[in-house]
Amino acid sequence: MTHWEDFYNTHLPPTDFEDNRSLLKEFCERHNKLQNRIVLVTSGGTTVPLEHNTVRFVDNFSAGTRGSASAEYFLDHDYAVIFMYRVKSLEPFTRHLTGQQFFDMLDITDNGQSTSITVKPDSVDVFAPILAKYKQARESQMILYVNFNTVADYLWLLRAACECLAAFEERALLYLAAAVSDFYVPQDMMPTHKIQSGQGAPTISLQLVPKMLAPLASLWVPHAFVVSFKLETDENLLITKARDSLFKYNHKMVIANILQTRKHRVVFVSPTMSYEVHLSREQALQGLEIEEPIVADLVKRHSEYINGASTNRQ
Ligand code: PMT
Known about the structure:
Blueprint: H1 4-10, H2 17-33, E1 38-43, E2 48-49, E3 57-58, H3 65-76, E4 80-86, H4 100-104, E5 106-110, E6 115-119, H5 121-139, E7 143-148, H6 151-165, E8 172-176, E9 183-184, E10 207-208, H7 213-220, E11 225-232, H8 235-249, E12 253-258, E13 265-269, E14 274-278, H9 281-285, H10 291-313
Parallel strand pairs: 1-4, 1-8, 4-7, 8-11, 11-12
Antiparallel strand pairs: 2-3, 5-6, 9-10, 12-13, 13-14
This protein binds ligand PMT.
The site of ligand PMT has 21 residues, from helix 3 and strand 11.
Family: Belongs to the PPC synthetase family.
Keywords: Ligase
Organism: Bactrocera dorsalis
């Protein structure tokens, strides 16, 4: 496996990296002065390009539902939110209005002289609260959006965000819900141009991506409340793998989930306990989202952690 430092020495940052770094710095400095709590929510999958001039890439299933919904609930709890998401995955607020749904909510009238567009009366009740929350979050500058595409983009942004979050110490929460690829083609092993089918089926050798949770938890943000997610498809492995991760990286919490049941059941695993959070069928039918109790629980645990740290300092 590439060592995490070698990764940064051998991979160029994305072209918009410096712009994003400035945005992160400005956002964090402002909220740190205000003594706000802050959360970094990572969301969506990462791509693994197979060519420098990328035509083909390896991807994964993540739609960004967990991250985008959670970002909204953290805003409800007065956290400043850095929403770090995969381009074209779901985003807070707009996630409620995907595809034709949005156009179906609108009416268009043309009287020959002018054209007007209005929200249909029966859609106002759905649209208004979402729009109000979006406006509130944007106008109060409580949310910053930064996006990535490839696994390398993600790793560069993650480190830059952590450099800015370190100053918050215990007030920072990291909520690492992105499905980050474990395998990739290093830049120096990638062909420049589109792989040609005329040359036969290619053999593509993937290397292990360094687990950035290691430097993140021990070096970059050692005082932050770091929560990672663990996704498995085999229930028998889930809790053991979550515990292994906790002992290996020494962070605060792992939220374990199974691919097929992730929208209504997760297991919180901390060094001292484990417990389940789930939605009943009735709750799911009523439109409740599991991210609401997940975030409420984490906010409580984060408060205990902050209070514990300040007691220890006295
Ligand atoms: O987006 P949705 O469709 O709503 O799905 C949500 C989800 C299933 C993606 C989410 O709930 C989830 O489980 N996210 C983490 C999935 C995952 O990548 O698990 P993992 O076992 O590969 O990684 C575990 C942790 O290590 C992750 O928090 C990740 O941030 C971290 N990691 C992973 C790879 C890597 N190279 N470095 C890392 O630090």
